[in-house]
Amino acid sequence: MYVSYNQDDWHIWLPLAESSYNNAEHSSHLAKEELVLAIRQFKKFADGDRKIPPDFQPGEKVWIASKNIKTKRPTKKHSERWLGPFEVFKKIGSHECHLKLPQKWKAVHPVFHVSLLEPVKKSTVLNQHQLQPMPVLVEEQEEWGVAQILDSKLKRGKLLYLVEWRGFSEDPERTTWEPASNLTSSPDLVMDFSHFVPG
Questions:
Q1: What is the spatial distance between Cα 57 and Cα 51, in angstroms, rounded to a whole number?
Q2: Could you give the CA distance from residue 146 to residue 175 in angstroms, rounded to a whole number?
Q3: What single DSSP character describes residue 190?
Q4: In 7-134, which ranges are continuous DSSP H helix?
Q5: What is the H or E stretch that residue 187 is in?
Q6: Cis amide leading into 172 (omega within 30)
Q7: Residue extents of the structural domains in the chain
Q8: Of 32, 113, 163, 173, which is most buried, counting CB atoms within 10 Å of its CB?
Q9: What is the enclosing helix (H) or strand (E) of 164?
Q10: Gene3D superfamilies of this UniProt entry (predicted)?
Q11: In this predicted structure, what is the pLDDT of residue 138?
Q12: Which of left, alpha, beta for 84 (phi over 0: left; psi -120 to 50: alpha)?
């Protein structure tokens, strides 16, 4: 085909034969196209259930899920679900954030996956600024201020008080049942509550 009758000039026609062969359609070309289509379909199905990770920026305030953090509370069931808020120090890749944690959290690694973080939502009420309460130092330890005592109950022979914390009076989900031993810095409030509640 690419040689003369005497078949002595084949080396002259070799580049043309090679080019024709390389440009011809082969079964491997079709397999490559089908493989690319299959990869696209797999990616489409795999990404269908995935969520786009939230884009936290440095300086933004976030809550940390408490599920992997040990607290001094006796049971996890009645502990806070979210801790914080804390400020994002820097973003590491697309799925991790380095947070500014207080000194008392030095045992906790400051880098968290974005699935464990929740943005602090701004108030929808016009011109409302929600101030975060500051902890009170009691004998070198931080303690949150008690706004008022709302209720009391006996549980397993132990007296518990329903406490509304200072700075969270707008949020009823932030009230907690506390034993009297946790309210040693607020004896006046305990006394006032005892006077007004019969029993």
A1: 18
A2: 10
A3: H
A4: 10-23, 27-47
A5: helix 187-196
A6: no
A7: 61-119, 136-196
A8: 163
A9: strand 158-165
A10: 2.40.50.40
A11: 40
A12: left
- Quote the tokens at residue 47: 């990404």
Selected from 2.60.130.10, 3.30.450.20, 2.40.50.40, 3.30.70.3270, the CATH number assigned to the domain covering 136-196 reads 2.40.50.40
Q: What is the pTM of this model?
A: 0.44
Instruction: Enter the tokens of residue 3.
Output: 């040689």
Cα dihedral 162, 185, 76, 83 in deg (nearest 10): 100
DSSP labels for 72-97? Answer: SSS-STTS-SEEEEEEEEEEETTTEE
199 residues of the chain, pLDDT tens digit each: 667 777 888 888 888 888 888 888 877 777 888 899 999 999 888 888 777 888 899 999 998 988 888 777 777 777 778 888 889 999 998 899 999 988 877 888 899 999 999 998 876 666 665 555 445 444 444 456 777 787 888 888 888 888 887 766 566 667 788 888 777 777 777 777 665 554 4
User: What is the side-by-side strand order in the sheet with 82-92?
Assistant: 111-113, 96-100, 82-92, 61-65, 117-119
- Predicted confidence at residue 195, as pLDDT, reads 57
